[in-house]
Structures are given as structure tokens and as C-alpha cells.
Specification:
This protein is an alpha/beta fold. The chain folds into 2 domains: 8-221, YjeF N-terminal domain (Rossmann fold, 3-Layer(aba) Sandwich), CATH 3.40.50; 228-236 and 243-385 and 395-506, 3-Layer(aba) Sandwich (UDP-N-acetylmuramoyl-L-alanine:D-glutamate ligase), CATH 3.40.1190.20. Helix content is 44%, strand content 15%. The longest helix has 23 residues, at 25-47.
Length: 507
């Protein structure tokens, strides 16, 4: 399965390519509805604990409603009890294609006001698709609210009604789907919050497109889901001839005595992820407490920026991680500026970013002047991002892309819908996320993974993508009760059992 993300414009362009190849539009609708029906019957219905064979299909006036009518036809032919409803009398103004399919199924239209929704074990939402560009009426909002209150399984067609396909934003109300069956490729709104939350499990089905059609459309949008397919051939799996310094040396800046834990998490994660050596730069005050917790991570007493960069030169450090627990202060700021000017690998996280909140342009100016730009990653969460950038009400991908253009760096914009953007590179969005990663210290682990992969020779865009994927897999594997200290235990397991197999298959 391809890993492209579509906008509403991309979907329209693909339809046009299919029509140029000889398809009629009603044939595409038939293909779409039939593919959705197969997925519903073969996968979704068998997964339901209670199923009484009674289904309700809610149709809108446009082509999404037509897809719903095709599904109704196939379900009826298979013996299911089907009710069709145009919630606000849309049947009077439906598209010509929908009229054609409505005649074929020969089902009386139900009045929504007289329907008891709890009699159905499955409700299919084909009210609005990806092309909705107007505010919802009060009647439709009322319909959506009633559907969301039922215990029935809800399946949305292409995208849940009320989600903006291009931004993930919600109308005043949106269908809260258990499943979304989307055509050809997932839409941005399926994977960006808050739309992601209301999309449920995503199923991708065909309308009869060719792979070449998808590639043509994808080149225009450059939006992809972050899967190993994208970066696995660039992953630096250890070779038999490697030695520790060939695997890279990472230097992590420790915080003061009161906040050393974050930097230790980053340091240990970098080592676990394959860096040949990791050193934690500690002040004299924090040195003892760090030493009491660490064995494999080396320690170096460093009390000022001169000490720090003398050590960088002496030990030929490959990558710096500055930010986790460092404190928002003059020293952190000085270290960041000097680190940018070294041209070596750099991960800026947490306090390394927030130290510039009063004057973000100072950070941006230094980043722009940096000659080597493909070995630097900024890893802000939403709060840190908003302290540096003020882009208003645009979607997360556009925000990250703008930030990447301003900083000339890779932006790993963290969250349940993590986005990775770099200048002149495809934008990447997390495919499957784990809410269990929302725990203190999780971002420090991610910073360590990013630093490790840069030190091992990956360019920043690929390193950020691989680190984000591995980080998320930890959350998916670990599940409830995960704390940051547990995370490094899963790194080796996932690298060995999952990523090694993927790497071998790709190479």
C-alpha cells in the first residue's frame, strides 16, 4: 500500500486522470461504492460483537451520497436490511449520478425525524465528503449529534462528515466515526488533529486507479505518511567493520543539579539507538548525581561554553543535543548560537528553543547563516512552537513547512499528529500514534533518538522520520503505564524485531 496523503484537490485531479483513461464518472462511483461495500462486509461487520443485519445509510446531495447509494445497493443484494435516509430532504436536489443509483436500489426514503437510530447496529455516513466548503445547517448539526449519541458502529465514507479534508479542522459538529473508508489515499484531515480523533480506523480502497495516476498526483502534493518505506534504505544499520567512533559520538548538555533527568534520558536513548559513544556534559554541581545514575554514558565536567566547545573539538563530536532540562538562561542561549556556528550535527529541543522566546529572530538569523543545513533538527511541541512562530489559523503541515523555510532546518513538530518538514523535502505525518507517549520525559527520549541517527550518518529529514517512527512504536508496544524511564528498554526490542526485518527486506 502506498503512503501518500491527498488533499481534496489531489482527489479531484485523480478523478480527472481516471476519466481521461476512459472511465465514466458513474463507473468511478460504482467502483468506489463497491470497494467500500466489500470492506464493510469482509472486515467491519465481522468485527462487531452484536449485529442484527439492520443498517442505516445517511446520504447527502453530492457524490458522497451517491457512494452511499452504491453501498446500499450491494448490501441489499446480499440480504441485509437497508434503510436509506436523506436527513434534510436532500433527495430533491441530489446529483444526477445519485438519482441513477437511487432508482436502481428501489428503497423507500426514510424520514430522519421518525427513525429510531438505536435499532441499527451499523450506520453509514455518506452525508458530506471531502468537498464540503460551507457551514453546516442547524438541521445537519442536529443529525450529527443524534448519530454520535447512538451505540451503533459508525462508518464514514471518504471522510467523516464535518471534517475539513485539507486541515483536519472540525465544523461546529462532526461525525465521530469508528471507521473511515477513504478512496485511493488517506486525506490530510484523517491524520491531523482534531479530525484524526473523529476518523476512527482508516481503511483505504480503490476506485480503479493505476499506480501511475497516484504517482502523478503525489508529485504535486508531496505529502506522505511516515513509514519506514520512506527512509529505510538510508538507515545506518551497523556493519561488521564498524567501530564505536564510526557509529558517531553524541554530546548531550546536562541541566543543573535540580533537573538532570531529562538530559540523562536523551543520552541513554542516543546510546541505545546505536550511537557509538555518548557523553553527558555536566557542571561540577550535577556531575555527582549524573554519575550515580549512569554507567555506559560517559561524563565530562563542563562549566561554561568554552569548556563545552573545547571538548567538542578535542573529541571530534558528531552531534550535539541541547535543550532537555538545560534551563532557559543565558548559557543555554550561548551554547545554541555557538553550536549552530560549528556546522556539526545539532538537535535543539525544549529549553534550547524556548531560550529564544523573547527574540526568535535571533535564533532564525543564526540558523539561516549556517552552511551545513541537512544535519540539524528542531523538535518543538505545540507550546514551544507557538512561542517561536506566529502563523495564525493554518493547518499543522503548513505551519511546519513555513517554520522549515524560515529556519532552513528540519522541523519535527511533536504531538499526537507529529509532522516532519524540511526545505525541498516531502512533508511527513505520523501514520499511527500512541497516546501513551504523552508522559513527562518522552520528548527527551525522542531528542536522543534524533541525535543518535544524525551521529550515525543520516541526514536530518530521514533521521527525524526514523526517530519519530521508532518513538511512536515504543508507545504502541508498551501501552498503558509507560513512563519515560521504561522507553529505552523498548528501543533494542523494536530495532531487533521490527526494524531489522524491514531493513533486510528493503536491502
Amino acid at each position: 500500500m502506498h503512503n501518500n496523503l491527498f488533499t481534496s484537490k489531489s482527489s479531484y485531479e485523480l478523478d480527472q486522470l481516471c476519466i481521461k483513461r476512459g472511465y465514466k464518472f458513474n463507473e468511478l462511483m460504482e467502483n468506489a461504492g463497491k470497494s467500500a461495500f466489500i470492506r464493510i462486509e469482509k472486515e467491519i461487520i465481522p468485527s462487531l460483537k452484536k449485529f442484527n443485519k439492520k443498517l442505516l445509510i445517511l446520504c447527502g446531495p453530492g457524490n458522497n451520497g451517491g457512494d452511499g447509494l452504491v453501498i446500499a445497493k450491494h448490501l441489499k443484494n446480499k440480504g441485509y436490511k437497508i434503510d436509506v435516509c436523506f436527513p434534510v430532504s436532500y433527495s430533491r436536489k441530489i446529483s444526477k449520478h445519485s438519482k441513477m443509483f437511487l432508482k436502481k436500489i428501489n428503497i423507500d426514503e426514510k424520514d430522519f425525524q421518525n427513525i429510531k437510530l438505536n435499532q441499527y447496529s451499523l450506520i453509514i455516513d455518506s452525508i458530506f465528503g471531502i468537498g464540503i466548503n460551507r457551514n453546516l445547517s442547524k438541521k445537519i448539526i442536529n443529525v450529527i449529534r443524534k448519530v454520535n449519541k447512538t451505540s451503533a458502529c459508525v462508518v464514514s465514507i471518504d471522510i467523516a462528515s464535518g471534517i475539513n479534508a485539507d486541515t483536519g479542522d472540525l465544523m461546529p459538529e462532526s461525525i465521530e466515526a469508528d471507521h473511515t473508508i477513504t478512496f485511493v489515499a488517506p486525506k490530510i484531515g484523517n491524520y491531523l488533529l482534531p479530525g484524526k480523533k473523529n476518523s476512527g480506523q482508516i481503511h483505504i480502497v480503490s476506485i480503479g486507479e493505476k499506480k501511475s495516476d497516484i504517482l502523478k498526483v503525489s508529485k504535486l502534493s508531496k505529502l506522505k505518511l511516515n513509514t519506514p518505506d520512506f527512509w529505510i534504505k538510508k538507515f545506518k544499520w551497523p556493519s561488521k567493520l564498524d567501530h564505536k567512533y564510526k557509529r558517531g559520538h553524541v554530546l548531550v548538555k546536562s541541566g543543573p543539579l535540580s533537573s538532570t533527568g531529562a538530559s540523562r534520558l536523551a543520552a541513554e536513548s542516543a546510546l541505545r539507538a546505536g550511537a557509538g559513544a555518548v557523553t553527558l556534559a555536566s557542571s561540577s554541581a550535577s556531575l555527582v548525581v549524573n554519575a550515580s545514575h549512569l554507567t555506559s554514558v560517559m561524563l565530562k565536567e563542563i562549566n561554561n561554553s568554552d569548556d563545552f566547545f573545547n571538548f567538542v573539538k578535542e573529541k571530534k563530536i558528531n552531534t550535539l543535543i541541547i535543550g532537555p532540562g538545560c534551563g532557559i538562561n543565558k548559557l543555554t542561549k550561548e551554547l545554541v548560537i555557538r553550536a549552530i556556528n560549528t556546522e556539526i550535527g545539532l538537535v535543539l529541543d525544549a529549553d534550547g528553543l524556548t531560550s529564544f522566546k523573547s527574540n526568535p529572530s535571533e535564533l532564525f538569523d543564526h540558523l539561516k547563516k549556517r552552511r551545513k543545513k541537512e544535519n540539524i533538527i528542531l523538535t518543538p511541541h505545540e507550546g514551544e512552537f507557538n512561542r517561536l512562530f506566529n502563523f495564525g489559523q493554518i493547518n499543522k503541515i503548513d505551519k511546519a513547512n513555513r517554520a522549515a523555510d524560515i529556519t532552513k532546518s528540519t522541523i519535527l513538530f511533536k504531538g499526537n499528529d507529529t509532522v516532519i518538514c524540511s526545505p525541498r523535502k516531502p512533508s511527513l505525518v505520523t501514520k499511527e500514534s500512541s497516546s501513551f507517549l504523552a508522559t513527562a520525559g518522552s520528548g527527551d527520549v525522542l531528542a536522543g533518538l534524533c541525535g543518535s541517527f544524525i551521529a550515525q550518518g543520516m541526514k536530518s529529514h530521514d533521521a527525524a522520520a526514523a526517530a519519530s517512527w521508532l518513538h511512536n512504536e515504543i508507545g504502541l508496544d508498551a501501552g498503558p503505564g509507560l513512563i519515560a524511564e521504561d522507553m529505552e528498554k523498548f528501543i533494542s526490542k523494536i530495532l531487533t524485531k521490527k526494524l531489522k526485518r524491514i531493513y533486510q527486506n528493503a536491502n
